[in-house]
Amino acid sequence: MESKKKTNKKFIIVIGALMIVGIVYGVYKYLYSRSHETTDDAQVNSKMNSIIPHVGGYIDTIYVKDNQMVKAGDTLLIIDQRDYLVQLEQAKANLAAAKGQIGVAEYSTGSSAANANASYAQASSTYGGIESAKIQLRRATDDYNRYKNLYESRSITTQQYEQALAAKQEAEARLSSLKDQQQAARSQSKAASSQKEATEKQINVAEAHLQSAQAQLEAAQLNLDYTVVTAPIDGQLSAISMQDGQFVQAAQQLFYLVDIHKKWIVANFKETQLSKMKVGQKVTITVDAYPDEEYEGVISNFSPATGARFSLLPPDNATGNFVKTVQRLPVQIDFTEANDHKKMELLRSGMNAEIDVHLK
Protein backbone atom coordinates (compact mmCIF):
# COMPACT_ATOMS: atom_id res chain seq x y z
CA MET A 1 0.00 0.00 0.00
CA GLU A 2 2.82 2.35 0.87
CA SER A 3 4.60 1.44 -2.39
CA LYS A 4 1.51 2.33 -4.39
CA LYS A 5 1.33 5.75 -2.75
CA LYS A 6 4.96 6.42 -3.64
CA THR A 7 4.31 5.47 -7.30
CA ASN A 8 1.30 7.78 -7.52
CA LYS A 9 3.37 10.60 -6.03
CA LYS A 10 6.13 10.15 -8.63
CA PHE A 11 3.60 10.06 -11.44
CA ILE A 12 2.02 13.26 -10.22
CA ILE A 13 5.45 14.91 -10.03
CA VAL A 14 6.29 13.85 -13.61
CA ILE A 15 2.93 15.03 -14.92
CA GLY A 16 3.34 18.31 -13.11
CA ALA A 17 6.84 18.79 -14.46
CA LEU A 18 5.63 18.07 -17.99
CA MET A 19 2.79 20.53 -17.58
CA ILE A 20 5.18 23.20 -16.33
CA VAL A 21 7.56 22.56 -19.24
CA GLY A 22 4.64 22.66 -21.67
CA ILE A 23 3.32 25.89 -20.22
CA VAL A 24 6.76 27.50 -20.26
CA TYR A 25 7.33 26.35 -23.84
CA GLY A 26 3.90 27.57 -24.89
CA VAL A 27 4.46 30.96 -23.28
CA TYR A 28 7.87 31.14 -24.95
CA LYS A 29 6.45 30.26 -28.37
CA TYR A 30 3.64 32.77 -27.92
CA LEU A 31 6.02 35.57 -26.95
CA TYR A 32 8.37 34.52 -29.75
CA SER A 33 5.58 34.59 -32.33
CA ARG A 34 4.72 38.14 -31.24
CA SER A 35 8.11 39.38 -32.44
CA HIS A 36 8.98 36.88 -35.21
CA GLU A 37 7.53 35.58 -38.47
CA THR A 38 8.95 32.38 -39.94
CA THR A 39 8.60 30.32 -43.09
CA ASP A 40 10.33 27.36 -44.68
CA ASP A 41 9.00 28.21 -48.18
CA ALA A 42 12.14 30.05 -49.30
CA GLN A 43 14.95 29.51 -51.78
CA VAL A 44 18.35 31.00 -52.56
CA ASN A 45 18.40 33.01 -55.80
CA SER A 46 21.06 34.54 -58.02
CA LYS A 47 21.26 35.96 -61.52
CA MET A 48 21.35 33.31 -64.24
CA ASN A 49 22.64 34.78 -67.51
CA SER A 50 21.74 32.90 -70.65
CA ILE A 51 24.68 32.54 -73.03
CA ILE A 52 23.17 33.40 -76.41
CA PRO A 53 25.21 33.98 -79.60
CA HIS A 54 24.47 37.01 -81.79
CA VAL A 55 25.31 35.12 -84.99
CA GLY A 56 24.78 31.57 -86.16
CA GLY A 57 27.22 29.01 -87.49
CA TYR A 58 29.12 25.85 -86.70
CA ILE A 59 31.03 25.77 -83.41
CA ASP A 60 34.76 25.83 -84.10
CA THR A 61 36.13 25.48 -80.55
CA ILE A 62 34.68 25.24 -77.03
CA TYR A 63 37.06 26.52 -74.37
CA VAL A 64 35.08 25.69 -71.20
CA LYS A 65 33.67 22.63 -69.47
CA ASP A 66 30.77 21.80 -67.16
CA ASN A 67 30.46 23.90 -63.98
CA GLN A 68 33.65 25.85 -64.71
CA MET A 69 34.34 29.17 -62.95
CA VAL A 70 35.00 32.00 -65.41
CA LYS A 71 35.81 35.69 -65.30
CA ALA A 72 34.08 38.46 -67.24
CA GLY A 73 35.57 38.62 -70.75
CA ASP A 74 36.83 35.02 -70.82
CA THR A 75 36.30 33.30 -74.17
CA LEU A 76 33.67 30.57 -73.90
CA LEU A 77 33.51 29.36 -77.50
CA ILE A 78 34.24 30.44 -81.07
CA ILE A 79 31.91 30.04 -84.03
CA ASP A 80 33.49 29.23 -87.42
CA GLN A 81 34.66 32.60 -88.78
CA ARG A 82 35.30 31.77 -92.45
CA ASP A 83 31.93 32.92 -93.78
CA TYR A 84 32.14 36.13 -91.79
CA LEU A 85 35.69 36.81 -93.01
CA VAL A 86 34.43 36.56 -96.61
CA GLN A 87 31.61 38.98 -95.80
CA LEU A 88 34.14 41.37 -94.27
CA GLU A 89 36.37 41.29 -97.37
CA GLN A 90 33.36 41.86 -99.59
CA ALA A 91 32.36 44.86 -97.46
CA LYS A 92 35.91 46.25 -97.75
CA ALA A 93 35.76 45.89 -101.54
CA ASN A 94 32.40 47.66 -101.68
CA LEU A 95 33.83 50.49 -99.59
CA ALA A 96 36.81 50.86 -101.91
CA ALA A 97 34.48 50.95 -104.94
CA ALA A 98 32.32 53.61 -103.27
CA LYS A 99 35.41 55.73 -102.56
CA GLY A 100 36.39 55.38 -106.23
CA GLN A 101 32.95 56.60 -107.31
CA ILE A 102 33.44 59.64 -105.08
CA GLY A 103 36.77 60.39 -106.79
CA VAL A 104 35.29 60.08 -110.29
CA ALA A 105 32.31 62.28 -109.38
CA GLU A 106 34.58 64.92 -107.82
CA TYR A 107 36.81 64.93 -110.94
CA SER A 108 33.75 65.34 -113.18
CA THR A 109 32.51 68.17 -111.00
CA GLY A 110 35.86 69.92 -111.19
CA SER A 111 35.94 69.57 -114.98
CA SER A 112 32.38 70.83 -115.28
CA ALA A 113 33.17 73.77 -113.03
CA ALA A 114 36.22 74.63 -115.14
CA ASN A 115 34.17 74.51 -118.33
CA ALA A 116 31.47 76.66 -116.77
CA ASN A 117 34.04 79.20 -115.60
CA ALA A 118 35.72 79.27 -119.02
CA SER A 119 32.39 79.76 -120.78
CA TYR A 120 31.46 82.52 -118.37
CA ALA A 121 34.83 84.22 -118.87
CA GLN A 122 34.44 83.96 -122.65
CA ALA A 123 30.96 85.48 -122.45
CA SER A 124 32.28 88.29 -120.25
CA SER A 125 35.18 89.05 -122.57
CA THR A 126 32.82 88.98 -125.56
CA TYR A 127 30.63 91.54 -123.78
CA GLY A 128 33.58 93.96 -123.67
CA GLY A 129 34.24 93.41 -127.41
CA ILE A 130 30.61 94.10 -128.23
CA GLU A 131 30.71 97.41 -126.43
CA SER A 132 33.85 98.36 -128.34
CA ALA A 133 32.24 97.25 -131.62
CA LYS A 134 29.19 99.38 -130.89
CA ILE A 135 31.39 102.43 -130.43
CA GLN A 136 33.24 101.69 -133.68
CA LEU A 137 29.92 101.17 -135.49
CA ARG A 138 28.61 104.47 -134.16
CA ARG A 139 31.72 106.29 -135.37
CA ALA A 140 31.64 104.53 -138.72
CA THR A 141 27.95 105.38 -139.11
CA ASP A 142 28.58 109.02 -138.29
CA ASP A 143 31.47 109.12 -140.79
CA TYR A 144 29.34 107.42 -143.43
CA ASN A 145 26.47 109.89 -142.96
CA ARG A 146 28.83 112.82 -143.16
CA TYR A 147 30.61 111.44 -146.29
CA LYS A 148 27.25 110.63 -147.83
CA ASN A 149 26.12 114.25 -147.55
CA LEU A 150 29.44 115.43 -148.95
CA TYR A 151 29.25 112.89 -151.78
CA GLU A 152 25.74 114.05 -152.71
CA SER A 153 26.99 117.65 -152.81
CA ARG A 154 29.94 116.38 -154.91
CA SER A 155 32.43 117.63 -152.37
CA ILE A 156 34.31 114.30 -152.14
CA THR A 157 35.21 111.59 -154.52
CA THR A 158 33.36 108.32 -155.05
CA GLN A 159 36.33 106.41 -153.60
CA GLN A 160 36.13 108.30 -150.30
CA TYR A 161 32.38 107.63 -150.08
CA GLU A 162 32.85 103.91 -150.77
CA GLN A 163 35.59 103.70 -148.10
CA ALA A 164 33.21 105.20 -145.50
CA LEU A 165 30.48 102.78 -146.56
CA ALA A 166 32.86 99.81 -146.33
CA ALA A 167 34.01 100.86 -142.86
CA LYS A 168 30.37 101.09 -141.73
CA GLN A 169 29.53 97.66 -143.14
CA GLU A 170 32.65 96.15 -141.58
CA ALA A 171 31.71 97.57 -138.16
CA GLU A 172 28.17 96.18 -138.51
CA ALA A 173 29.52 92.73 -139.46
CA ARG A 174 31.97 92.74 -136.55
CA LEU A 175 29.21 93.69 -134.06
CA SER A 176 26.91 90.96 -135.41
CA SER A 177 29.71 88.39 -135.18
CA LEU A 178 30.51 89.35 -131.60
CA LYS A 179 26.82 89.06 -130.63
CA ASP A 180 26.69 85.58 -132.14
CA GLN A 181 29.83 84.65 -130.18
CA GLN A 182 28.29 86.00 -126.99
CA GLN A 183 25.11 83.99 -127.53
CA ALA A 184 27.13 80.84 -128.16
CA ALA A 185 29.22 81.47 -125.02
CA ARG A 186 26.09 81.93 -122.95
CA SER A 187 24.64 78.67 -124.26
CA GLN A 188 27.89 76.87 -123.45
CA SER A 189 27.89 78.43 -119.97
CA LYS A 190 24.33 77.23 -119.33
CA ALA A 191 25.20 73.75 -120.56
CA ALA A 192 28.31 73.68 -118.39
CA SER A 193 26.32 74.83 -115.37
CA SER A 194 23.71 72.11 -115.96
CA GLN A 195 26.47 69.54 -116.28
CA LYS A 196 28.02 70.84 -113.06
CA GLU A 197 24.70 70.46 -111.20
CA ALA A 198 24.32 66.94 -112.56
CA THR A 199 27.81 65.95 -111.44
CA GLU A 200 27.18 67.50 -108.01
CA LYS A 201 24.10 65.29 -107.69
CA GLN A 202 26.28 62.35 -108.67
CA ILE A 203 28.58 63.26 -105.79
CA ASN A 204 25.61 63.18 -103.38
CA VAL A 205 24.61 59.75 -104.68
CA ALA A 206 28.21 58.55 -104.43
CA GLU A 207 28.47 59.85 -100.86
CA ALA A 208 25.27 57.97 -99.94
CA HIS A 209 26.76 54.80 -101.44
CA LEU A 210 29.93 55.44 -99.45
CA GLN A 211 27.99 55.75 -96.19
CA SER A 212 26.08 52.56 -96.99
CA ALA A 213 29.32 50.71 -97.74
CA GLN A 214 30.85 52.00 -94.50
CA ALA A 215 27.83 50.77 -92.53
CA GLN A 216 28.04 47.36 -94.23
CA LEU A 217 31.72 47.16 -93.33
CA GLU A 218 31.01 47.97 -89.68
CA ALA A 219 28.20 45.38 -89.62
CA ALA A 220 30.49 42.75 -91.14
CA GLN A 221 33.22 43.55 -88.60
CA LEU A 222 30.68 43.38 -85.78
CA ASN A 223 29.39 39.99 -86.94
CA LEU A 224 32.96 38.72 -87.10
CA ASP A 225 33.56 39.92 -83.54
CA TYR A 226 30.35 38.21 -82.44
CA THR A 227 31.77 34.82 -83.48
CA VAL A 228 33.83 34.99 -80.28
CA VAL A 229 31.37 34.35 -77.42
CA THR A 230 32.66 35.70 -74.10
CA ALA A 231 31.46 35.68 -70.49
CA PRO A 232 29.52 38.85 -69.61
CA ILE A 233 30.15 38.54 -65.85
CA ASP A 234 32.12 36.57 -63.28
CA GLY A 235 30.33 33.35 -62.47
CA GLN A 236 30.00 29.60 -62.74
CA LEU A 237 28.80 27.82 -65.85
CA SER A 238 26.06 25.24 -66.00
CA ALA A 239 26.39 21.96 -67.91
CA ILE A 240 27.74 22.44 -71.46
CA SER A 241 25.43 20.33 -73.61
CA MET A 242 27.16 20.85 -76.97
CA GLN A 243 30.30 19.91 -78.83
CA ASP A 244 32.68 21.13 -81.54
CA GLY A 245 31.13 21.16 -85.01
CA GLN A 246 27.58 21.55 -83.75
CA PHE A 247 25.45 24.13 -85.59
CA VAL A 248 23.95 26.90 -83.46
CA GLN A 249 21.55 29.63 -84.48
CA ALA A 250 21.56 33.31 -83.58
CA ALA A 251 19.63 33.96 -80.33
CA GLN A 252 19.74 30.26 -79.41
CA GLN A 253 20.17 29.61 -75.68
CA LEU A 254 23.32 27.53 -75.25
CA PHE A 255 23.85 27.30 -71.47
CA TYR A 256 23.76 29.40 -68.30
CA LEU A 257 26.28 31.52 -66.43
CA VAL A 258 25.31 31.90 -62.77
CA ASP A 259 26.46 35.02 -60.93
CA ILE A 260 28.56 34.01 -57.92
CA HIS A 261 28.59 37.43 -56.26
CA LYS A 262 25.02 38.66 -56.04
CA LYS A 263 22.71 36.31 -54.09
CA TRP A 264 19.42 36.83 -52.31
CA ILE A 265 16.49 34.93 -50.81
CA VAL A 266 12.93 34.80 -52.11
CA ALA A 267 10.65 33.77 -49.22
CA ASN A 268 6.93 33.11 -49.76
CA PHE A 269 5.04 34.28 -46.67
CA LYS A 270 1.36 33.71 -46.03
CA GLU A 271 -0.73 36.83 -46.47
CA THR A 272 -1.72 36.57 -42.79
CA GLN A 273 1.93 37.00 -41.78
CA LEU A 274 2.53 40.33 -43.56
CA SER A 275 0.78 42.80 -41.24
CA LYS A 276 3.88 43.62 -39.18
CA MET A 277 6.58 42.95 -41.75
CA LYS A 278 8.41 45.98 -43.20
CA VAL A 279 11.34 46.72 -45.47
CA GLY A 280 14.62 46.87 -43.54
CA GLN A 281 13.71 44.38 -40.80
CA LYS A 282 16.48 42.01 -39.74
CA VAL A 283 16.25 38.37 -40.91
CA THR A 284 17.99 35.23 -39.72
CA ILE A 285 18.52 32.70 -42.52
CA THR A 286 19.25 28.99 -42.20
CA VAL A 287 19.94 26.93 -45.32
CA ASP A 288 18.87 23.26 -45.28
CA ALA A 289 22.18 22.15 -46.77
CA TYR A 290 24.13 23.75 -43.88
CA PRO A 291 21.83 23.67 -40.83
CA ASP A 292 24.62 24.63 -38.44
CA GLU A 293 25.34 27.89 -40.30
CA GLU A 294 23.31 31.07 -39.83
CA TYR A 295 23.19 33.97 -42.28
CA GLU A 296 22.10 37.53 -41.69
CA GLY A 297 19.78 39.42 -44.03
CA VAL A 298 17.26 42.24 -44.30
CA ILE A 299 13.91 42.52 -46.04
CA SER A 300 14.53 44.32 -49.34
CA ASN A 301 11.10 44.50 -51.00
CA PHE A 302 7.70 42.89 -51.37
CA SER A 303 6.28 41.48 -54.60
CA PRO A 304 3.48 43.55 -56.20
CA ALA A 305 1.27 40.44 -56.48
CA THR A 306 0.93 36.97 -55.01
CA GLY A 307 2.71 34.07 -56.61
CA ALA A 308 -0.55 32.69 -58.01
CA ARG A 309 -1.03 35.84 -60.10
CA PHE A 310 2.24 35.23 -61.91
CA SER A 311 1.35 31.64 -62.82
CA LEU A 312 0.59 30.64 -66.41
CA LEU A 313 -3.08 30.10 -65.56
CA PRO A 314 -3.94 32.28 -62.54
CA PRO A 315 -6.98 31.10 -60.55
CA ASP A 316 -10.27 32.86 -61.24
CA ASN A 317 -12.56 32.83 -58.22
CA ALA A 318 -15.49 34.05 -60.33
CA THR A 319 -15.90 30.60 -61.88
CA GLY A 320 -16.75 27.27 -60.27
CA ASN A 321 -17.14 26.65 -56.56
CA PHE A 322 -15.13 29.15 -54.55
CA VAL A 323 -12.78 27.71 -51.92
CA LYS A 324 -10.83 30.30 -49.96
CA THR A 325 -7.13 29.47 -49.70
CA VAL A 326 -4.45 31.47 -47.97
CA GLN A 327 -2.23 33.12 -50.61
CA ARG A 328 1.53 33.55 -50.39
CA LEU A 329 3.43 36.71 -51.31
CA PRO A 330 7.07 36.57 -52.45
CA VAL A 331 9.37 38.69 -50.28
CA GLN A 332 12.96 39.46 -51.32
CA ILE A 333 15.60 39.23 -48.59
CA ASP A 334 19.12 40.51 -49.24
CA PHE A 335 22.20 39.18 -47.47
CA THR A 336 24.09 41.78 -45.45
CA GLU A 337 27.80 42.54 -45.65
CA ALA A 338 28.25 41.01 -42.19
CA ASN A 339 28.10 37.48 -43.65
CA ASP A 340 31.35 35.62 -44.01
CA HIS A 341 32.56 35.51 -47.63
CA LYS A 342 33.47 31.82 -47.46
CA LYS A 343 30.06 30.96 -46.06
CA MET A 344 28.42 32.85 -48.91
CA GLU A 345 30.40 30.83 -51.46
CA LEU A 346 28.71 27.67 -50.14
CA LEU A 347 25.28 28.84 -51.28
CA ARG A 348 23.86 27.72 -54.62
CA SER A 349 20.83 29.05 -56.44
CA GLY A 350 17.70 27.02 -55.69
CA MET A 351 18.73 25.78 -52.22
CA ASN A 352 15.92 25.64 -49.66
CA ALA A 353 16.12 27.94 -46.66
CA GLU A 354 14.25 28.71 -43.45
CA ILE A 355 13.52 32.35 -42.70
CA ASP A 356 13.06 34.08 -39.32
CA VAL A 357 12.02 37.74 -39.55
CA HIS A 358 12.65 39.86 -36.46
CA LEU A 359 9.60 42.11 -36.24
CA LYS A 360 10.96 44.14 -33.32
List keywords for this structure.
360 residues, alpha+beta, Elongation Factor Tu (Ef-tu), domain 3, OB fold (Dihydrolipoamide Acetyltransferase, E2P), 3 domains, six-stranded antiparallel β-barrel, four-stranded antiparallel beta sheet, 24% strand
Report on the architecture of this protein.
This protein is of the alpha+beta class and 360 residues long. It has three domains: 37-47 and 261-360, Elongation Factor Tu (Ef-tu), domain 3 (Beta Barrel), CATH 2.40.30.170; 53-80 and 227-252, OB fold (Dihydrolipoamide Acetyltransferase, E2P) (Beta Barrel); 82-222, Helix Hairpins (Orthogonal Bundle), CATH 1.10.287.620. The protein contains four helices and twelve strands; from the N terminus they run H-E-E-E-E-H-H-E-E-E-E-E-E-E-H-E. It has helices spanning 2-35, 82-152, 158-226, 341-345, and strands at 36-51, 57-62, 69-70, 75-79, 228-230, 235-237, 247-248, 255-270, 282-287, 290-302, 328-335, 352-358. The strands form two sheets. Strands 1-8-11-10-9-12 form a six-stranded antiparallel barrel. Helix 2 (82-152) runs antiparallel to helix 3. The mean pLDDT is 82.
Compact overview of the structure:
With 360 residues, this protein is α+β, with helices and mostly antiparallel strands. The chain is built from four helices and twelve strands.
User: What name does the CATH topology of the largest domain carry?
Assistant: Helix Hairpins
Parts with pLDDT < 50 across at least 5 consecutive residues = none
Strand content: 15-25%
Number of strands: 12
CATH class of the largest domain: Mainly Alpha
Which CATH architecture of the largest domain is right? Orthogonal Bundle
Element order: H for helix, E for strand: HEEEEHHEEEEEEEHE
Look at the structure and name the CATH superfamily of the largest domain. Answer: Helix Hairpins
Overall shape: rod-shaped
Question: Which structural category fits the helices and strands?
Answer: alpha+beta
What summary fits the major beta sheet?
6 strands, antiparallel, barrel
Specify the helix fraction band: 40-55%
Q: What's the helix count?
A: 4
Question: Into how many domains do the coordinates divide?
Answer: 3
Q: Provide the gyration radius in Å.
A: 50 Å
- Main-sheet strand order equals 1-8-11-10-9-12
Q: N- to C-terminal separation?
A: 56 Å
Mean pLDDT: 82
